[in-house]
Design goal:
Blueprint lengths: L2 H8 L12 H6 L21 H39 L3 H11 L7 H34 L2 H31 L7 H34 L7 H12 L3 H18 L5 H28 L3 H35 L1 H5 L7 H5 L2 H19 L28 H38 L6 H29 L48
Helix pairs in contact: 3-5, 3-7, 4-7, 5-6, 5-7, 6-7, 6-9, 6-10, 7-8, 7-9, 9-10, 9-11, 10-11, 11-15, 14-15, 14-16, 15-16
Length: 516
Amino acid sequence: MSDGSVQQWQSQPAVPLLEEQRVGEILAAVPERRHWRYRPRRVGMVWRSRTFRLAAVFTVLALCGLAILALVRDQTGTQGFLVGLGLAVLPVPLLLAAFRWLDRVDPGPWRNVLFAFAWGAFAAALVAILANSFATRWIATTTADPSNADTLGATVIAPVVEESAKAAAVLLIFLFRRREFNGIVDGVVIAGITASGFAFTENILYLGNAFGQDQQIGTSGVVSVTAATFFVRAVMSPFAHPLFTVLTGIGFGLAAASARRRRVRRVLLPLLGLVLAMGMHSLWNGSAVFSPYGFYAVYAVFMVPVFGLVTWLAIWSRRRELRTLAAELPAYAAAGWLSPAEPLALSSMRARGLARDAARRQYAVAARGSRAVPYGPGWSPGAAPGPAPWPSTQTAAQMEAAAKAQGKAAAQAVAEYESFATSLASLRLQARRGAACPDFTDRELELLHHLWQRREVAAPALAYAAQAAGLLRPHRLPSPPYAPPFPPHAQYGAYRNAPAPGPGYNPYLLPQQPPH
């Protein structure tokens, strides 16, 4: 082996080498459940309490929601508010579904989604309404030119205020949910959902005011101001606000993927994204002010190409996450923590879905008392567990409900396994880039602990999925370091009395070469 290859091998993050007689010692290093949060609590500091922070965030968002509700209703009237609300909610499911689809590889928790949407709809919208109104009135009073004040407010004040208010949600999740913010996809998703909430509230205001105008002039139907406003904001440009703020999210995503030693880059990239978002927002608002056909020109020449470019970048980043799984997880397969087929299955969204469905069918069939193997004839690693006799007192409906519950629990275990494996690959990639936290080893052991707990259910399903999806190439796979059925893992009883490791044993050293 050349010096260059040796140096490259040594630069890789070490993987705990799985040996059955030493698993007990390796897993004994996993922290207790109460220590699974990496930043320990400090007793006596109220603001560091998780309960206090959740209560504070909920209170702030609730107060902002009540305030924005009162302001919008005051400007549109009750009837206009209800009409605007009914129309503004229509594009929201499309936007949320698009961003959640983009985040399918390593989905973030729903609490982040709800916080981002609520921040955009309540806090950011409230700041924008108050700040824009105050700035416009101040400019009109100072310059004695109300028309010029409206133009400056739309093209200068509004983009700066609104994009800063929306970027605050991305910044908060970046700082306080750093473990769940790993790259461009996370930045795009959080920024897009925040902007979707903001656009939702803004659409209520615009559509409610348009309905009020229709009532005054007596128009209705497709020629009404309400219909025109809905077409422009909800049909032609539902992604306008998300597109602006996504530029800020991309900046934060690039910063999250950067090495920790590059502090200047980690600060400048989000700022650059924010400036680009403000500039694009200003161009969009000014397109309808400076020329009667400016809106259509900017929409066709600028907005559509940028939307296509950002969409391509987001999808490319999503595929890159899958390639990361295929590149990083084989090291754990070589060390024995994963089967050789699992990295292939985990790097394919189709195989992931097949694995969940297979586990659901397998355990539901086994729970019904059938020895049929739903993975198909000739499948040995995924042999269904033996049937458990049902008590005679149970009805057929109870048996079927219990079977479905067991199948659902198995599918959930596979989904959790896939999520933890994705986090493990992302953690290892961060370590190679120099962006990992100082507690890399603790986090790695914790993730391996979660994988081990679900291994008996998930590994056969993923191996079957790799085979069913046509991903297996026998000449590419080393011989498996273990053979099913897997040892019991719930209490690690098989390794509890394992002998102590010998002198010089290091569980974090990789083998010099993968087994053949």
